[in-house]
Amino acid sequence: MQALLHIARTVRREARDLTTEDVEAAESAGASDADVQLAVLIAAAFSMYNRIVEGFRARTPPTPEAFRARASEIAEHGYSDNRVSAVPGR
What we know:
Elements: H1 2-14, H2 20-28, H3 33-55, H4 68-77
Helix pairs in contact: 1-2, 1-3
């Protein structure tokens, strides 16, 4: 896990700094190719989403507490809220 976290942190900071040695260290620790690829993909996507939020100057709550109610709704109903239709008349 530590080797995969190192890969993710490297990709987050500067993806071009990821080395063959970093990947080999993860594989030596038991990570599969799929594990390494997933760590890279997740870190890259997370970085992209953060840049989008920052680029749009999105206003976000200052503490995680503001997200708890919505997280409970998502856990109970999923991301789609079937109580409100996106298409009028349905």
